[in-house]
Amino acid sequence: MTATTGTVVVRDVRPEDAERLGAAVAAAYVRDALLPADDPYVEVLRDVAGRLPDVVAVLAAYDGEEVLGGLTLVEAGTSHAEVALPGELEIRMLGVSPDHRRRGVAEALLRAAEERARAGGHIALVLSSMPAMTDAQRLYRRYGFVRVPDRDWLADWDPEALADGTAERLSVYRLPLEDPR
To answer: Which of 68, 101, 131, 141 is most buried when burial is the number of CB atoms within 10 A of its CB?
Structure first.
């Protein structure tokens, strides 16, 4: 399954491109100051090949042979899922290389994720967003995702921040798929 926007083509990542996709997504998180370069999660973002066996799909956006960005799709109850409920498909690790922003890459990735979710019989797409991801949140709302505040959650990867009350609250967004777009 592929989705095309201009010269942007979205498809399952080719195994030989896993390292380049991981680097692009990690660069997006670091450049946007969502993570410091030495944060252990940067290695999780980079390890596309390591998560391929455990997820529904890793989608990559290409322009020719160039990897522009990507996302990971996971089902509820799996090791990479954070907020998906049964029947929902969760978008994780969405990132676009800083050099390829403002080209419709993220929207093309969302469209491909929606196609995959519909093809798989899922009732909704869901995702979490950090407070600093304001541009992404605007895109999600414009695309049709709706905030679901009662599903927001505290970032649980830093036990000290949880203990002292400084953990970030992640916002949950949901795109119902019952009606065709």
So the answer is: 68
Tokens for 156, please give them: 């649980």
Residue with tokens 């992640």: 170
Q: In terms of Cα–Cα distance, which of 170, 180, 120 is closest to 148? A: 170
Q: pLDDT tens digits for 57-102?
A: 999 999 999 999 999 999 999 999 999 999 999 999 999 988 877 7
* Residue 62 main-chain phi, psi, to 5 deg: -120, 150
Nearest CA-CA partner of 57 in 106, 95, 90, 85? 90
What span, in angstroms and rounded, lies between the C-alpha atoms of 41 and 1? 29
Distance (Å) of CA 124 to CA 9, 86, 106, 128, 145: 23, 10, 18, 14, 10
Q: Is beta strand 57-63 parallel, antiparallel or unpaired with respect to 124-129? A: unpaired
User: Which is more confident, 120 or 178?
Assistant: 120
Regarding pTM above 0.85, the answer is yes
CA distance 153 to 52: 26
